Amino acid sequence: MSALGDAEEKLSIIDSRIMELTKISKLLIEVESGYSQTTLEELEKLGVNPKINLNKRLMGLILSMKLKLLNLKKVKMLLKEKEYKILR
Predict the structure, then answer these.
(1) Does the pLDDT at position 42 exceed 60?
(2) Torsion sign (Cα): 30, 69, 4, 85
(3) Looking at the predicted structure, is the pLDDT value of residue 54 above 70?
(4) How many Cβ atoms are within 10 Å of 10's Cβ, its own excluded?
(5) Which domain of life is it from (predicted)?
(6) Which among 7, 31, 39, 70 could disulfide-bond with 76, CB atoms 3.0 to 4.6 Å apart, if both were Cys?
(7) How many structural domains does the chain have?
(8) Using CA atoms, how far apart are residues 54 and 26, in angstroms rounded to an integer?
(9) At residue 45, does pLDDT exceed 80?
(10) pLDDT band at residue 30, thresholds of 50, 70 and 90?
(11) Which carries the bigger pLDDT value, residue 48 or residue 38?
(12) Burial track 28-64 (b if 16+ CB lie within 10 A, e otherwise)
């Protein structure tokens, strides 16, 4: 697989993880402000104990993943530029 393909695959994985962590964070915020049984069940399906305040840690993880995503996007852009120069 090419370096560009690897970068695109990693971008996709990180993007999926960010979406999952964002969903967990939103559910935890619901728990903090009053919640329903459905919210608790959804968190349990995602493997999160709703009785533990993980919101700050999750937000940190999301920020970290977003930074990795930005870095990979930069790498992808540089690889495309390099590929373009080679083709010329």
Answers:
(1) yes
(2) positive
(3) no
(4) 16
(5) Bacteria
(6) 7
(7) 1
(8) 11
(9) yes
(10) confident
(11) 38
(12) bebbeeebeeebbebbeeeebebeeebbeebeebbee
Range of the domain at 34: 3-87
Rounded to an integer, the average pLDDT of 38-53 is: 74
Among 15, 26, 32, CA closest to 76: 15
d(CA 33, CA 61): 22
Contacts of 20 (CB under 8 A, 6+ apart): 46
Which are the contacts of 27, defined by CB distance < 8 A and separation ≥ 6?
39, 42, 43, 46, 48, 50
Nearest to 7 by CA among 61, 79, 63: 79
| Residue for token pair 């104990």 | 49
